[in-house]
Structure formats: C-alpha cells, structure tokens
Specification:
By secondary structure, the protein is mainly beta. Helices cover about 0% and strands about 50% of the residues. The chain contains no helices and 12 strands. The strands form 3 sheets. It has a 6-stranded mixed beta sheet, with no helix packed on it. A 4-stranded antiparallel beta sheet has the order 1-3-8-7, with no helix packed on it. The protein has a two-stranded antiparallel ribbon with strand order 10-11. A hairpin with a 4-residue loop joins strand 7 and strand 8. The N and C termini lie far apart (about 40 Å).
Length: about 120
C-alpha cells in the first residue's frame, strides 16, 4: 500500500501565497477523488478542498476564491495552491483519498505539512 507524503508547507506572511503537494508511493491518488484537510491547534480536522478523478473541484466556504486544488495524474500528485493567506489558515495540512484511506480497518493519515501564516 502507498504512503501519503505532504510537502511544501512553511512560514508565510498574511497575504502571501504557498503551494503544497501530496504524493503517494502506491499510485493510489491518480485513480481516486482526493481531498485536502487541515487541522488547526485545538480544532477538529476539516476538509478545505476536494477534487474528483475527473478533476471536478469543491471548496470550503472559508477558502473559496483563495485556494485552488489540482492534480497531475502522470506524477501521482495533488496540489493545493493557496493565495491571500490569513492567520486563520495556520494549520497542519493533510491529503487523503475520498473516502479516507484505511489500513487494517483504521484510518491512515500521512504526517501532514505545517503552514504557518504570520500577521
């Protein structure tokens, strides 16, 4: 089974941009719907954007118009381009398939990538 690896996070000032990526060593992403989730300190994990295998997209109201999800199936990679970042976007960002990937009956999550937006 593949591993999900998120990358590209970092520290950015409010109003800045960042692109994060998600790859999978098991070639699972390319044939599935994929979502980016985020979890801020003390808050529950939430879905911010999703993309189907056919590249239809959906966004949470809080990021619509600022974030763009895309995929490169040839590279088995899903991206999240984030513009006009706000301090409230600070979180660990995770990608996963839809439905959530499970291994031995348990949800599997990668390590995520930390995005920190300073005011």
């Amino acid at each position: 089974q593949g591993q999900l690896v998120e990358s590209g996070g970092g520290l950015v000032q409010a109003g800045g941009s960042l692109r994060i990526s998600c790859t999978d060593s098991g070639n699972i992403l390319a044939s599935n719907s994929v979502a980016w989730h985020r979890q801020a300190p003390g808050k529950q994990r939430e879905v911010v954007a999703s993309i189907t295998a056919g590249a239809s997209t959906n966004y949470a109201a809080s990021v619509k118009g600022r974030f763009t999800i895309s995929r490169d199936n040839a590279k088995n990679t899903v991206f999240l381009q984030m513009y006009d970042l706000k301090p409230e976007d600070t979180a660990v960002y995770y990608c996963n398939t839809l439905p959530i990937m499970t291994i031995n009956g348990k949800q599997y999550w990668g390590k995520g990538t930390l995005v920190t937006v300073s005011s």
